[in-house]
Design goal:
The protein is of the alpha/beta class. The protein contains 13 helices and 18 strands. The strands form three sheets. Strands 1, 2, 3, 4, 5, 16, 17 and 18 form an eight-stranded mixed β-sheet that branches. Strands 8-11-12-13-14-15 form a six-stranded mixed β-sheet. The protein is globular and about 70 Å long. The N and C termini lie far apart (46 Å).
């Protein structure tokens, strides 16, 4: 593999992009991981017209006189997705008033919706974007019930309308935390979860009487039962954090009983029941590097779980290293690289953080793969996209390169040279 000076390439690339029009852009001579049925193109081109991908191929069979980028020695992937983050919901974990992903207010259970708290001006967003992350699933955490509430899908663009879906899926914790919040026993957690679903079914059948106060009492208030109706109707998915193999079997039984659209998250022991998960058609969100025991639910965690699940036919979605899912959400790429080291193919690893989440969460018609008609959200890498030392040369969103600037890069540039016009904040 040819070795390039990354800084030089980036400067040249950005300079070449300054004159790119919103109309057309041609990228040539790149290795393209399409994350689609077209597979990987060893030396190909991407034609972008009106912010969308017009053509993708190996040999250009048309004349082009517009702006061209020669990406020789580089690779291109779709913009990456981390499928379990708190992006936009936290600035500093140790400062409680900057943390918005959990509520202790007992008024809200399933009806808690996190999207209104997402801050598009969060410094974590450009920091992740310049490292290749263009989309993320933003997730609430449970505060007083095993029900965490509804999460959102976001696109890490500059626009304030970055939210793709403000009530993407209902999130539930059926792992150790959910057990703790349910009286200290997973038997209690299971009973509360199942009874809540039964109550919601009953409420759906007797809605008018319930709202007039002419029906029986329920475990949850009516606004929380209302929030459960979309998952019972199949209109919304439910993401259940669960690790232990026996608990995964319980979740699959609830999926079958209530005909739920379930996604498993965490799933450290999922490989033990991979065939059952695959037969149920349930996708799994995992950190492929999670093999250290957070609790006794994860005794069978192993580093090759991603390849084992893939071999069984399970749809994989990735989150980042050790669930560092906010400021370091972009480390999902490092997690994917380690999954490849333990048996997963490069193509499947890239799909787990691009086309798979787009398909599972319902926006594959617009994003997630490099195909004609999709919005041009791409990342040009200075080497193999899963190598830890590879960096993003450029991130393209809506067919145009975005500024590769974040608070971190500004601080770097501010203090790289001390003899500047800026006054020193501190002198020895």
């Amino acid at each position: 593999m040819r070795i390039f000076n990354t800084a030089t390439i980036t400067v040249c690339f950005v300079f070449s992009c300054l004159c790119v029009s919103a109309g057309e852009l041609l990228i040539e001579n790149a290795k393209i991981y399409t994350a689609s049925e077209q597979g990987t193109i060893e030396n190909g081109y991407i034609l972008i017209q009106d912010n969308k991908i017009a053509k993708v191929g190996e040999r250009r069979d048309f004349d082009f006189t517009g702006q061209t980028i020669d990406a020789e020695g580089r690779s291109i992937t779709p913009g990456l997705v981390n499928s379990y983050t708190q992006l936009g919901l936290v600035e500093i974990n140790a400062v409680s008033h900057s943390v918005d992903f959990v509520t202790e207010d007992k008024l809200f259970g399933p009806s808690f919706k996190i999207s209104s708290a997402i801050n598009p001006a969060s410094t974590a967003i450009p920091h992740n974007r310049i490292n290749g992350l263009t989309h993320a699933i933003v997730v609430p955490e449970p505060g007083h019930l095993l029900f965490a509430g509804y999460g959102a899908a976001i696109r890490l663009a500059h626009a304030e309308n970055m939210i793709l879906d403000d009530s993407l899926a209902l999130f539930i914790n059926f792992a150790a935390q959910g057990s703790k919040l349910s009286g200290g026993s997973r038997a209690s957690a299971y009973s509360k979860l199942r009874q809540s679903l039964l109550d919601a079914q009953d409420y759906m059948s007797n809605r008018k009487e319930s709202r007039r106060g002419q029906w029986r009492d329920y475990f949850l208030p009516l606004h929380d039962l209302e929030a459960l109706l979309p998952i019972l109707k199949g209109d919304k998915q439910v993401v259940i954090t669960v690790h232990r193999a026996s608990d995964i079997r319980l979740v699959l039984s609830l999926q079958k009983e209530f005909k739920l659209k379930v996604i498993l998250a965490g799933a450290s022991e999922a490989w033990l029941v991979a065939d059952q998960i695959s037969a149920a058609g349930v996708p799994v969100i995992i950190d492929p590097m999670a093999n250290l025991l957070g609790d006794f639910d994860q005794l069978a965690a192993r580093l090759d779980s991603a390849s084992r699940l893939q071999s069984a036919g399970v749809t994989l979605l990735f989150t980042g290293v050790a669930w560092r899912n906010t400021h370091s959400a972009y480390t999902v790429r490092q997690a994917a690289g380690n999954a490849v080291a333990y048996g997963l193919t490069v193509e499947d690893a890239i799909k787990a953080m691009s086309s798979n989440p787009a398909r599972v969460f319902g926006y594959a018609d617009r994003f997630g793969s490099i195909e004609s008609g999709k919005i041009a959200d791409l990342v040009i890498w200075d080497g193999h996209p899963l190598e830890i030392l590879t960096r993003a040369d450029s991130v393209i969103m809506n067919g145009k390169p975005v500024a590769m600037v974040s608070r971190s890069t500004r601080l770097r540039d501010r203090y790289r040279e001390l003899n500047t016009l800026y006054p020193p904040a501190y002198q020895k």
